[in-house]
Amino acid sequence: MPAAATDIATGYEPLDTLKPVADGLWLIDGPAQTCRGVPVPTRATVIRLASGDLWVQSPIRLSEGLRGQLEALGPVAHLVAPNRWHHGHMTDWQAAFPRAQSWAPPGVAEHAARNGHALVLDHVLQADGAEAPWAGQIDQMVVGGSRLHQEAVFFHRASRALILADLIQAFETAKLPAWARPLIWIAGVDDSDGSMPPRLRWAYHDKAALAESLERMIAWAPERVILAHGRWYERRGTAELERAFRRLLRHRRWDRALSDMKKGDGGTR
Fold first, then answer.
1. Contacts for 250 with CB less than 8 Å, ≥ 6 apart
2. Are 224 and 239 in contact (CB under 8 A)?
3. SS3 for 255?
4. Rounded alpha-carbon distances, angstroms, from residue 229 to 20, 60, 263
5. Class in CATH terms, 18-268
6. pLDDT digits (tens, 9 = 90+) for 66-110
7. In this structure, are strands 123-124 and 101-104 parallel, antiparallel, or unpaired?
8. Which string of DSSP letters, residue by residue, matches 55-108?
9. CA-to-CA distance for 255 and 261, rounded, in angstroms?
10. Distance CA 157, CA 264 (A)
């Protein structure tokens, strides 16, 4: 997320602390950052791999207290920026954990450089297939359909948790300033029906490729869906994906149903 952190309450306190979700899985709620003037809560996800190493997605503000909690949990070995907007604190984490390897999808480092940010990465994430350090534990893919927005998504098998960044946003407007709530309602990303924000829908030029990636995420059958901003889904994760992406999948599924009907008609004649 761009811009500096704000000091206003986010509604997800305590901040800067590890919050256990399942065996080997923690969340860290961070301070709000301003996005077009709106204070947006932030969140990182931490997974302890079978090796004992820690894997951190979307690193947020790193306080001394949080650093101590992480060091007590295990060595921070992997720092993952899931898209071009989620690397703002990466350099702080790299300095604190110099042995950690840094990962991001294609184009993230170049986007950072164009915006005046020096971002050094060790690895570019594969578009399809887990990296060796977490193969068999965390599935991954870079969602298809966009040249502008490359977002890597992850599925932690043990906890059945799907980890997203910006593909779904579900802001609890009661936790936002009153003046910001209409902006969230108009964008259609309030918690009553969290979904993909309009600016991302517009960035995906190939809706068929996007739909294919979305259906693959649904096929992972997650129980939990963790979001970087707003409320996350502790249960019924697959149903929440079906709901959030229903408009993007509607035409693909309708076409498939018609095709199946035609095949059925052909078999009875």
1. none
2. no
3. helix
4. 18, 12, 43
5. alpha beta
6. 999 999 999 999 999 999 998 989 999 999 999 999 999 998 988
7. parallel
8. EEES-----HHHHHHHHHH--EEEEE--STTS-TTHHHHHHH-TT-EEEE-TTH
9. 10
10. 37
- Distance of alpha carbon 1 from alpha carbon 18, whole angstroms: 20
224-226, strands of its sheet edge to edge: 138-142, 152-156, 161-163, 224-226
Q: Which residues contact 133 (CB under 8 A, 6 or more apart)?
A: 49, 51, 53, 55, 77, 78, 101
Task: Identify the pLDDT of residue 118.
Answer: 84
* pLDDT in the model for residue 115: 83
As a whole number of angstroms, the distance between CA 163 and CA 224 comes to: 8
Cα(238)–Cα(161) distance, rounded to whole angstroms?
A: 10
Domain residue extents for the chain: 18-268
pLDDT band at 269 (very low <50, low <70, confident <90, very high): very low
Structural tokens at position 37: 């003037």
The 3-state DSSP class for residue 21 equals strand
Taking 70 as the threshold, does the pLDDT of residue 158 lie above it?
yes
Closest C-alpha among 141, 25, 32, 128 to residue 88: 32
